[in-house]
Amino acid sequence: MSSYKIIALMGKAKSGKDTFGEMLLRANPDGARVAFADKLKEICGEMFDLSALAADCATDGRYACLFVSAPLNIPRGVASPPNALAIK
Predict the structure, then answer these.
(1) Cβ atoms 9, 17 nearer than 8 A
(2) What is the pLDDT confidence band of residue 2, given thresholds at 50, 70 and 90?
(3) Taking Cα atoms as reference points, which of 57, 44, 43 lies closest to residue 87?
(4) Quick one: three-class SS letters along 46-75?
(5) d(CA 7, CA 21)
(6) Where are the domains of the chain?
(7) What is the mean pLDDT of residues 36-61?
(8) How many angstroms separate the CA atoms of 50 and 16, rounded?
(9) Cα 81 to Cα 69: distance, rounded to the nearest angstrom
(10) With bands split at pLDDT 50, 70 and 90, how would you rate the model's confidence at 55?
(11) Among 19, 79, 48, 17, CA closest to 9
(12) Is the pLDDT of residue 1 over 70?
């Protein structure tokens, strides 16, 4: 029975996580690199049309925002569809 070791790297952007991960893969060629947030980013990109936000960011040059999904107030509802808000 083989065992797997999982090493997770986390930190701020541009902190060297990819560089260190590449060094680990060179040392252990049987390893695999998995980016946990890639699938989440893909799903968000499919759920929300971000083209209007991208155009607005290009217009004013501000690309930082708080991206949230606020619940809708639906009388007698038990769930809410995604309601994207980008707060700049």
Answers:
(1) yes
(2) low
(3) 57
(4) HHCCCHHHHHHHHHHCCCCCEEEECCCCCC
(5) 9
(6) 17-87
(7) 84
(8) 29
(9) 9
(10) very high
(11) 17
(12) no
Q: What is the pLDDT of residue 76?
A: 84
- Three-state secondary-structure class, residue 84: strand
Q: Is the dihedral of CA 28, 30, 36, 42 positive or negative?
A: positive
| Whether the predicted pLDDT of 4 surpasses 90 | no
Distances (CA, A) of 53 to 60, 67, 83: 11, 10, 14
Rounded to an integer, what distance in angstroms lies between the CA atom of residue 40 and that of residue 45? 9
Q: What angle do CA 63, 64, 69 make, to 5 degrees?
A: 110
Residue 56 has pLDDT above 90, yes or no: yes
The whole-model pTM stands at: 0.44
Residue 88 CA to residue 55 CA, distance in Å, equals 13
